[in-house]
Design goal:
The complex is a heterodimer of chains A (114) and B (105). In chain A, strands 2, 4, 5, 6, 9, 10 and 11 form a seven-stranded mixed sheet that branches. In chain A, a hairpin with a 5-residue loop joins strand 4 and strand 5. Chain A has 114 residues and is mainly β. Chain A contains no helices and eleven strands. Chain B is globular, with a radius of gyration of 13 Å. The chains are: A mainly beta (114), B mainly beta (105). Chains A and B meet through strand 5, strand 9 and strand 10 of A and strand 5 and strand 10 of B.
């Protein structure tokens, strides 16, 4: 089966611009998660979708971040306007059952805000 | 919230050596995973192991849920084992800070 796909793999944008990251989960996985790792820090949970519904968005840093999952398939994470501190690697993961059987991660999107 | 601590933070090995990485967590969990982040940044799922022992080739893992720790064993290490090893727990996957492993030929 195809894995979790993320694109772009890299993005360099200027402060104040908008960037949209995309994640395609494994087919049939209702649960989709976004994480990020900013430089030198730990990988942190951002939010969890069950199908198209946001189950938990407690990790979203502020209202400049907007995640959507229309139709319960792929998800997008938009950062608008981007700030320097948003630089880091954004990971997406999917699972069949939350908390069980393991999560599969995508390769991540490395975002650099200059 | 749950705290996850990994040790050691850094580890340098000669090729062929064995090693043990540890993950302590502060509360009971029903999900624990070990990941390897390779030099290209990819997070590779090594084990889903909320309890018990599993083996996959040169890697094995043991989780003692009642004592809130997990161990990852790497035997006969190879240079391709280099990278950062993460432990993560809970349904949100709370990550530890990782163990950075460098295997030298």
């Amino acid at each position: 089966e195809a894995g979790v796909t993320q694109f772009p793999s890299h993005s360099v944008i200027e402060k104040g611009q908008t960037v949209t990251l995309r994640c395609d989960p494994i087919s049939g996985h209702d649960n989709l998660y976004w994480y990020r790792r900013v430089m030198g820090k730990e990988i942190k949970f951002l939010l969890h979708f069950v199908k198209e519904s946001k189950q938990d968005e407690s990790g979203m840093p502020n209202n400049r971040f907007l995640a959507e999952r229309t139709g319960g398939t792929y998800s997008t994470l938009k950062v608008q306007p981007a700030e320097l501190e948003d630089s880091g690697v954004y990971f997406c993961a999917s699972s069949q059952v939350p908390g069980n059987y393991g999560y599969t991660f995508g390769s991540g999107t490395r975002l650099t805000v200059v | 919230g749950i705290q996850v601590e990994q040790s050691p933070p850094d580890l340098i090995l000669q090729e062929g050596a064995n090693s043990t990485l540890r993950c302590n967590f502060s509360d009971s969990v029903n999900n624990l995973q070990w990941f390897h982040q390779n030099p290209w940044g990819q997070l590779i799922n090594l084990f889903y192991i909320p309890s018990g022992t599993k083996q996959n080739g040169r890697l094995s893992a043991t989780t003692v849920a009642t004592e809130r720790y997990s161990l990852l064993y790497i035997s006969s290490s190879q240079t391709t084992d280099s990278g950062v090893y993460f432990c993560a727990v809970g349904y949100k996957l709370i990550f530890g800070a990782g163990t950075r492993l460098a295997v030298h030929p």
